[in-house]
Design goal:
Alpha-Beta Plaits, 4 strands, 2 domains
Length: 165
């Protein structure tokens, strides 16, 4: 009996998390001018929502209400995190320079390993020593964070110019 209640509460939690993920996703899809996907998201979300209302009302206890409420926040958090990870709202162009040739080579390897589009060209330091310049095109916020973390945690000094397209 107790295992059935736990399974039912877990299913309620999952359904509400998916409902909120779809509901928040709908808002993101509307902003990105994807009306058909936004409409489908609303339809599925409403079916789940009304099923949940029925189940929570029939449960007769507050525990189901609290579980569904917590799941609502979790679903929204997941949707926002997924949107941040895959968002391609604009491309950030990072022109990166350094006097340390090996640091630039290592940076290029890092960018390639993380599938961040980049262009490496010959360059010169202010003392006219040969170096390389890297232009990295961060298409998502996640790629921008990867570049930020790499440069901030590096022992080498970099000059970085960021432009958004």
């Amino acid at each position: 009996m107790a295992i059935e209640i736990i399974i039912e509460l877990a299913v309620l939690f999952l359904l509400k998390a998916v409902d909120n993920l779809l509901s928040t996703g709908k808002q993101i899809l509307i902003q990105r001018h994807r009306p058909i996907l936004a409409s489908l998201s609303v339809v599925i979300s409403q079916i789940i929502f009304y099923r949940l209302i029925n189940k929570v009302s029939a449960s007769g206890g507050d525990l189901a209400l609290y579980i569904v409420s917590i799941a609502s926040g979790v679903g929204t958090l997941i949707a926002v995190k997924l949107s941040d990870k895959f968002s391609k709202e604009r491309t950030f162009v990072n022109v990166i320079l350094s006097d340390d040739m090996q640091a630039m080579i290592d940076l290029r390897e890092f960018l390639m390993a993380h599938k961040i589009t980049n262009l490496t060209t010959d360059g010169y330091t202010k003392d006219w020593n040969k170096s390389i310049a890297i232009t990295a095109y961060a298409d998502t916020r996640e790629q921008s964070r990867l570049i930020d973390n790499y440069l901030n945690n590096s022992k080498s000094k970099f000059k970085r110019i960021i432009q958004n397209k």
